[in-house]
Amino acid sequence: MSLLDFVYYSFITVVFIQVIYYVFLFSKFAFIKQKKERTKKIPVSIIICAKNEAQNLKKFLPSIISQSYPDFEIVLINDASTDDTLDVIEAFAAENNNIKIVDVKNIEAFWGNKKYALTLGIKASKNDHLLFTDADCKPVSKYWIHNMSSHFNDEQTIVLGYGAYSKIEKSFLNKLIRFETLVTAVQYFSYAKVGIPYMGVGRNLAYTKKDFFKANGFINHLKVRSGDDDLFINQVATKNNTAICFSKNSFTQSIPKTSFKDWIKQKRRHISTAKYYKLKHKILLVLFYSTQLLFWFLAPILIIATYKWPIVVILVLIRLILQYTIFGLSSKKLGEQDLIIMLPFLEVFLIITQLTIFINNLISKPNYWK
């Protein structure tokens, strides 16, 4: 067998695996229809951990305070901030009787550990149903709590939501950030839909206090600075207790990074937690990423060499058509349609970026949450 023969058959295998992912996994989210939310009036505690977020709280907290929901409290955690965060929180609390303040001081054992601060906030909350977001996030509608909490029932005690990033015109970095967010959401929604949930995002996530204490909180990964959202969900989520919420009124929107350096730093922290996922999740995620990388590496080689190029072109088109179909439908659900026109280019750039981050994380470990 010649080298080109090996590349050719490897390429066929890669395309076959990619087709399986798109047809049997990602299509589960792409073709799903959002069920109509049932009105529920369960008491909800909104948990927000803020570290040096004075300006963001001033800007975004009013959109949470003004939520159209009959029974909710807001637990604001000041995580040892060095700016005016505590003053801002106290000012809001003076005007709103449903705000509870948790002022966290740094202690040596948990210095700078967000999970410690979150644990104190969860303990201080009065309701069993918890809804999490970040200080730099805002709900896109006044029905955010209603939409997310409507998916709670006796069996489903975890709700995965979508945390979008705001759009910046004529910014390639912004498109890349939103594309990575879209890809991640399609993955975790699809995996949850087929019964193997593996993560959620802290910008928009809900679960019960009972689940938290049953799992002993973050104790299994307390020393890992990141992962208060994805590692916890990876630990406790099952096919029976996890629901997904993707109605437009349930989204949150965050401020995206505006420099590659800051975004890379953020993604290094996020990606560093993946090695702690359950083995089955790591295998599935690595296999998909590896075949993505190989697809864009092997296809140009075969086309440039004109080796059985008609078959290669057909296989490339099959994979791209599937990708455009699945991500086109998914992006419509999540309000990210403008990204689809640049899909192949964004995918290649993201693959290269993720590979670079992975290599950097092997060399040096990110050790911060903010």
Automatic annotation (TrEMBL):
InterPro entries (alphabetical): Glyco_trans_2-like, Nucleotide-diphossugar_trans
Top-level taxonomic group: Bacteria
Pfam families for the chain: Glycos_transf_2 (PF00535)
Gene Ontology MF term list: glycosyltransferase activity
Family: Belongs to the glycosyltransferase 2 family.
Swiss-Prot/TrEMBL keywords: Glycosyltransferase, Membrane, Transferase, Transmembrane, Transmembrane helix
Record has Transmembrane as a keyword: yes
Protein name, per record: Glycosyltransferase
Enzyme superclass (EC): transferase
TM helices/strands, residue ranges: 6-31, 283-303, 309-327, 339-363
